[in-house]
Amino acid sequence: MKPIVPFEPVREAAVPAGEQWIYQIKWDGVRILTYCDESGVSLYNRRLNERTKQYPELHDTESYCRAKSFILDGEVIALAADGKPSFPQVMRRDGVRRTDRVKQAQKEVPIYYMVFDILYHNGNWVHQLPLQQRLDLLSGSLTPTATVQQVTSHPNGHVLFDLMKQQGMEGIVSKRLDSTYVIGGKNDSWIKVKNYGDIIAVIGGFTLSGDTVNAVLFGLYDAQGQFWYIGHTGTGRMSKADWRALTDRLTPHVVKERPFVNKPERHNDAIWVRPLITAKVMYTDWRQQEGHMLRQPSIQAFVDVPPEECVFPRN
């Protein structure tokens, strides 16, 4: 099967209300579509990068899906010690490239596949059916296991979102029951409301404490391909060893000229680098239209995303 670009929700500040909506937890992980037909099984992320070898737990499709051929859409997650989804943890699995390391990664970081949609079923495309029919079809096809679960739909979005805030989790996705699945599309029949914001940004500079990086400066590209500084951070899910490893990664790419169009404030000691390394950055607020920097940004994980794809969001 040829991989497809998945349907994406738009981001809004408020949870929509009404009987035509259902609400699901927005799991903080890696978007993975599972493709199965007579030729075998394959896994692809939303950027159409193959991830089949990274997640062998999902290869035995007969153990969790009764359909003979299908495309499932869901989120692969991994849990932290507190039992909550951890993006850095799932990146430890998603970043494995060598086949000989996959088994060890399986033992160290178990994953879970949270399935929320079905697009193809026993030789037929079903993405144009209303969501309610697709969910019924998914329920009748999926066999829950310790690794694979169907995402629960909740009737009250405000209650669910309040719970996510209490738990410090990412947020929720609201979906219209009559919505079709638009391949490669994005519209407000699916709406995500987040407890906090996150983006994938590109590192364009750093500062040192001694001989080790202690903070990074990062930015995004605009529609004209210009690289804009949007913030800096020296915090996040980073150990001392992680900072030393980042120092080794950044040092070969040092340049004399500032890569950002705009000049960062209070960073006369910054060392500039070519914008090559990307990271997921979490923040509490960002008034982009007012030209403000990210508020309280922190690094969550380094990711395998091309720098040129790190652009200012439309929503």
Automatic annotation (TrEMBL):
The main enzyme category here is: ligase
- Looking at the record, the residues that make up the ATP-dependent DNA ligase family profile domain are 104-226
**Which EC number applies?**
6.5.1.1
Q: Name one Pfam family in it.
A: DNA_ligase_A_M
GO MF entries: ATP binding; DNA ligase (ATP) activity
What's in the keyword line of the UniProt record? Ligase
The record's catalysed reaction(s) read: ATP + (deoxyribonucleotide)n-3'-hydroxyl + 5'-phospho-(deoxyribonucleotide)m = (deoxyribonucleotide)n+m + AMP + diphosphate
Q: Name one GO biological process term.
A: DNA recombination
Report the family membership. Answer: Belongs to the ATP-dependent DNA ligase family.
Q: Which InterPro entries match?
A: ATP-dep_DNA_ligase (IPR050191), DNA_ligase_ATP-dep_C (IPR012309), DNA_ligase_ATP-dep_cent (IPR012310), DNA_ligase_ATP-dep_CS (IPR016059), NA-bd_OB-fold (IPR012340)
Entry protein name: DNA ligase (ATP)
PANTHER family attached to this UniProt entry: DNA LIGASE 1 (PTHR45674:SF4), DNA LIGASE 1/3 FAMILY MEMBER (PTHR45674)
Please name the Gene3D superfamilies in this protein's record: DNA ligase/mRNA capping enzyme, Nucleic acid-binding proteins
Which species is the source of this protein? Answer: Paenibacillus xerothermodurans
Q: Where, by residue number, does the polypeptide cross the bilayer?
A: none
Give coiled-coil spans as residue ranges: none
